[in-house]
Amino acid sequence: MPGDILSQHEIDALLSALSTGEMSAEEMKKEDETRKVKVYDFKRALRFSKDQIRSLTRIHENFARLLTTYFSAQLRTYVQINVASVDQIPFEEFLRSIPNMTLLNIFEVPPLEGNIIMEVNPNVAYSMLDRLMGGVGDGPGKVDNMTEIETKILTNLFERSFDNLREAWSGIIEIDPFLSEVEVNPQFLQMISPNETVVVISFNIVIGESSGMINICIPHVVLEPIVPNLSVRYWMQTNKKEPTPEQSVILEKRLKKATLPITTELGHGAMSIEDFLYLQVGDVISLDRKIDDPLLVKVGDIPKFTAQPGHLRNRMAVQIIDILNGGDEDDE
Question: Which domain of life is it from (predicted)?
Fold first, then answer.
């Protein structure tokens, strides 16, 4: 079959047949042309195209970069994470590929339906736990005897990492991941049918002197509603989407509630440090502005208005008398 790897013995036999005339190159070519059939394993159904797999790879490469920064800050040590592989396999094959006892974070990603699994190798999990507890990153590497406190510490660490997952997926869909369950034994995972196709994204992770794998398992049924968004055509769209009327109303309401500092300058003055040190209540400071000159009103640090001083309900106030026009900053 095309793509089969020949052993050295088979290669020698083939060359011998060609040299003795038992087989000609034309016959081999004809045989190759007639055998275009490829065996298809229905238990290993390919539900995602190569294009969609590349999109998933791109998403999780970004996720790996974000996780590298996040874990480096949380663990206070050198952390390096990169995508090792992205494969689509049956769910039962994924279960067979992971250790009998490992850390399994099961989380949901609304609005998508279904669960996603993040499997963390015990060596990695205990290295993280040891760093969080003030150690150097060593651990027994057995998650079957984890205490409730250790489980809670690791759970909090991975729950906070979901912000990075949300950001990595933001170009495709806005998700709101949350942790629903933590397991250590893969035998208790009965989420989907064993023959259901899943995408497994494997990450290599290095934490100080320790290294291991993190695997994310995404069932096809979870991604099915957004499969069209994983095409190159969707990624290549450069036109900005106009906000919907509902989004415009929400944005307007938020802008109206935004606060900005507004200051009014009476003027500027200069004095020596000696005079400044001897200032007392009642002293008069000469300013560079006349008493009848308009005052300058700033929004933030940008001059925007001129005003005149006065009183309003027994309080000092200013009355806007003119708007300043000055360059590009007026558009802010």
Answer: Bacteria
Q: What's the pTM?
A: 0.58
Sort strands 115-120 and 103-108 into parallel, antiparallel or unpaired. Answer: antiparallel
CB 61 within 8 A of CB 83: yes
Neighbours of 274 (CB within 10 A): 7
HSE at residue 216, side-chain half, CA atoms within 13 A, is 24
Contacts of 205 by beta carbon, 8 Å cutoff, 6+ apart: 71, 79, 80, 81, 124, 211, 212, 213, 214
Q: Do you find a cis peptide bond into 111, omega within 30 degrees of 0?
A: yes
Alpha-carbon dihedral 161, 164, 166, 169, rounded to 10 degrees: -140
pLDDT at residue 202 greater than cutoff 90: yes
Which string of b and e fits 22-45 if b means at least 16 CB within 10 Å?
eeeeeeeeeeeeeeeeeeeeeeee
Q: Spell out the residues 6+ positions from residue 332 whose beta carbon is closer than 8 angstroms to its own.
A: 302
Cα gap 293→313, rounded to integer Å? 23
What would the pLDDT profile of 282-331 be if each residue is shown by its tens digit?
888 888 888 888 888 888 888 889 888 888 888 888 888 888 876 444 44
Residue 297 CB-density burial (10 A; 0-12 exposed, 13-18 middle, 19+ buried): buried
Residue 237 sits at φ, ψ, to 5 deg, of -65, 125
Q: Identify whether the C-beta of residue 74 lies closer than 8 Å to the C-beta of residue 157.
A: yes
Is the preceding omega at residue 177 within 30 degrees of 0, hence cis? Answer: no
The Cα 206–Cα 211 span in angstroms is 4
Q: Phi first, then psi: what are they for 123, rounded to 5°? A: -60, -40
Phi-psi region of 49 (alpha: psi -120 to 50; beta: other; left: phi over 0): beta
pLDDT in tens, 44-89: 567 788 888 888 999 999 999 999 999 988 888 888 999 999 999 8
From CA 54, how far away is CA 40, in angstroms rounded?
22
Domains, the chain, in order of start with CATH, read: 39-239 (3.40.1550.10), 259-323 (2.30.330.10)
